[in-house]
TrEMBL record:
GO terms for biological process: fatty acid biosynthetic process. The lineage of its organism: Bacteria, Pseudomonadati, Bacteroidota, Cytophagia, Cytophagales. This is 3-oxoacyl-[acyl-carrier-protein] synthase 2. It comes from Raineya orbicola. One of its GO terms (cellular component) is cytosol. The keyword Lipid metabolism applies.
Length: 417
């Protein structure tokens, strides 16, 4: 069987730096930080009192109030970005073969806010079990694609991938594989997360993963900087519509980019720490290049996992230098988590979108807050510090890794007939 070409025909975004794709790109290209003091709860007693929250999101634009009450915030974000992407793709939903349309979504945690609220309410009570009848549907991660498929009647593959911070990348890769092997014509994919809660902040504080730069939230996410002290928790989501090329061509769809390769691997090393030699990341990138049928010198831009953690950042760069050799000095490298924070299971979706928009605009978004490069990193590498850079971009590579040693790489290409 000859694999089919897979293109991207629709996009949607709700992020800490913009609630549409256009707003998101404006924030990325201008180097805007989405970090600010937490508004969702009183964080005054927490070690970290800031996050990259979504601002001014109006769920009523996408979901009726009565239905929205039955859902968790991560599901609101999923439905919102899916609707944006569907409208962007210009589908005639009446003529679309919905048996051949699927939804494959990524979420590492799911309805953490709903879980926390129900447990807290129970603990405060007299022991009588009074739980919301929508508690379980609000909590479980698979209900994000479930709600999307129900809303539009999509009858194809429908599930959620859960691999911590690699979840959305896993979802996109699965969608890519389903389409290229002829199992679907169209798949809505991406991810959403809403973990800015007491449990989310407290839990990551407990394992010392979060920045505690409370006096300057906007500069707290600083990948590759010598004074980085952890990641900044973010929230939101993004949707990519993947479509089989001939199907897209037949309906006259606009095409943003093409998905051409993907790789998976496991570190098989530690539940939270990366492999010290970056072996899993090396294998993952090599597999993606092989899958795309290209050599390393074809890649123009790498959107790194780059979380702003002391241990994680250098290991990924070591792996990049191992795979790309001397050509690594000709690459643009950047971490858009410096602006959006870390969206956990949704991070692969917003970063895939960053790669696609970089290809579209031929501009590399920056790594902001890079004041002084960590001395363990090679200063000859181009980390795209603090300002966006124009360059020719034909291929862009996106890395995302998750607790448990999960590694994912996706390669996007500028579309050509």
């Amino acid at each position: 069987m000859n694999p089919k070409r897979v293109v991207i025909t629709g996009l949607g975004a709700v992020t800490p730096i913009g609630n549409t794709v256009a707003e998101y790109w404006e924030g990325l290209s201008k180097g805007v930080s989405g970090a600010a003091p937490i508004t969702r709860f009183d964080a005054s007693k927490f070690k970290t009192r800031f996050a990259c929250e979504v601002k001014n999101f109006d769920v009523k634009l996408y979901i009726e109030h009565k239905e929205a009450r039955k859902m968790d915030l991560f599901q609101h974000y999923a439905i919102a970005v899916a609707e944006q992407a569907i409208q962007d793709a210009g589908f005639d939903l009446q003529s679309l073969d919905k048996r051949r349309v699927g939804v494959i979504w990524g979420s590492g945690i799911g309805g953490l806010r709903s879980l926390q609220m129900e447990v807290v309410d129970f603990a405060k009570g007299d022991g009588t079990p009074r739980f919301n009848p929508f508690f379980i549907p609000k909590m479980i991660a698979d209900l994000a694609p479930g709600h999307i498929s129900i809303k539009y009647g999509f009858l194809g593959p429908n599930y959620t991938t859960v691999s911590a911070c690699a979840s959305a990348n896993n979802a996109i890769i699965d969608a890519f594989n389903y389409i290229r092997w002829g199992k679907a014509n169209v798949i809505l994919t991406g991810g959403s997360e809403a973990a800015v809660t007491e449990a989310g902040i407290g839990g990551f504080n407990a394992n010392k993963a979060l920045s505690e730069r409370n006096d300057s939230p906007e500069t707290a996410s600083r990948p590759y900087d010598k004074d980085r002290d952890g990641f900044v928790l973010g929230e939101g989501g993004a949707c990519l519509i993947l479509e089989e090329y001939e199907h897209a061509k037949k309906r006259g769809a606009k095409i943003y980019a093409e998905v051409v390769g993907a790789g998976f691997s496991s570190d098989a090393y530690h539940i939270t720490a990366p492999h010290p030699e970056g072996l899993g990341v090396i294998y993952c990138m090599q597999d993606a290049l092989d899958d795309a049928g290209i050599t390393p010198d074809k890649i123009d831009y790498i959107n790194t996992h780059g979380t702003s953690t002391p241990i994680g950042d250098p290991q990924e760069i070591k792996a990049i230098q191992e795979v790309f050799g001397e050509y690594a000095y000709k690459l643009n490298i950047s971490s858009t988590k410096s602006m959006t924070g870390h969206l956990l299971g949704a991070t692969g979706a917003v970063e895939a979108l960053a790669c696609i928009l970089a290809i579209q605009h031929q501009v590399v978004p920056p790594t902001i807050n890079l004041f002084e490069l960590d001395e363990v990193l090679d200063p000859k590498l181009n980390f795209t510090p603090n300002k966006a850079q124009e360059r020719k971009i034909t291929y862009a590579l996106s890395n995302d890794f998750g607790f448990g040693g999960h590694n994912t790489t996706i390669i996007f290409k500028k579309f050509e007939e």
